[in-house]
Amino acid sequence: MNRREFGFGLAGLAAACALDSLTYARDADTIRVNGARLNEHLQALAQFGKNPQGGVSRVAYSEADRQGREYVMGLMRAAKLDVSIDAAGNIVGRRSGRDLSLKPILFGSHVDSVPEGGNYDGDVGSLGAIEVAQTLAENNITTGHPLEVCIFQNEEGGLIGSEALLGILDDKALDRVSNSGKTIREGIRFLGGDTSKLSSVKREKGSIAAYLELHIEQGGTLEAEHVDIGVVEGIVGINQWEVTVEGFANHAGTTAMNNRRDALLAAAKFVEAVNRVVTSVPGRQVGTVGRIQAFPGAPNVIPGKVILSLELRDLDAAKIQMLYQRIRGEADQIAQASKVTFDYRPINENIPAPTDLRVRTIIDQSAKELGLTTKQMPSGAGHDAQDMARLGPVGMIFIPSIGGISHAPKEFSRPKDIENGANVLLGSLLKLDDVNW
Length: 437
Ligand code: GLV
Ligand code: MN
Ligand code: MN
Known about the structure:
Elements: H1 10-15, H2 35-45, H3 63-78, E1 82-85, E2 91-95, E3 105-110, H4 123-138, E4 147-152, H5 160-166, H6 171-174, H7 184-190, E5 210-216, H8 221-224, E6 229-235, E7 237-246, E8 250-251, H9 263-278, E9 286-288, E10 292-295, E11 301-302, E12 305-314, H10 317-338, E13 341-350, E14 353-354, H11 357-369, E15 374-379, H12 384-388, E16 394-399, H13 415-433
Parallel strand pairs: 3-4, 3-5, 5-16, 6-15
Antiparallel strand pairs: 1-2, 2-4, 6-14, 6-16, 7-12, 7-13, 8-11, 9-12, 10-12
Bound molecules: glyoxylic acid and manganese (II) ion (MN) (2 copies).
Glyoxylic acid binds near residues 156, 381 and 382.
């Protein structure tokens, strides 16, 4: 069955951005995903890297990651997608469109996890996208635009797979050691990519019609307010640094308390300063020290060196820089008082990304047509969508996370919400297809 063509220019869409009054002519208005199948697939994927706490440890480039990806590729083939692994190790499932002149619509997410993560972050959007492709295949629907289901590799390690599409994965990034213990370069090879051909993966700005991502909210707003679907307004910028504090390692029994250069004590003051600076101004910005290592790491040695992580997030990149400078100012004072030094190495930067107003409007209308309630909201978590926003219009669909728990084994989203999210993804995709992007 071919879906009905109809002229729906961007100008018309922009002019009617309230959209409530807009009607879309579609042959496929009534098709729905198979929610039971999607939830079964999620349970099956959760077996790869399953941990005793009930979640998964499927960090990128681990054996569990490789096996999980094999499972996902099997699902993609069953959904009649033309599956390949690109040179950056991303999984891409292509589906032809009717009109060869149109740019592809991309949709997907990631299946790698944080260490001791949950079963929904990334998985819902990835398997939801595959379920949408399968639903299109079962209903013999051919879209006008070609479609690409993208399962990005190593989202949790800094949006690595989607950075490859931007062409910004340089040697320094490739040599960084990931949570798996492998460098990113080794990891890409491990997944079946080829770092010598990374330029083949790069896409130009304007080369995609749109990118859509379904994801769990990872916060507690939707559940608390009894809202079914979050329509994401923008994704926060994320800056991360490795901070090294150098003091002097010495005997813990013979060195008087007033004669120490204790790097861990200075680091503890730094952790407190980060919290104080970030909470000293109004707004939704957040700052975290999530990892800290003391050296040499013995009960009877004063720590001479500490390596810690600093992460700052906000929708406004300038605000992140302002907070960073204030934190450094505080650290300078700690350094002087504690006779230590602080050194900062930027390790990751994802710039904030607003989503596209037209795509947001389409998501909102798709949800409402399904009888679902919606809320416009920012994303405090990072997503591959923020890299894709540098290539073309993006939109993100959130579903509730129970208890607002994420990046933890107790992460949970209800099967019905997952099904709803996938149906909104399907409806939005079909509406996006009706626009000549
Ligand atoms: C990715 O999940 C992030 O927000 O860290
Ligand atoms: Mn995610
Ligand atoms: Mn995550």
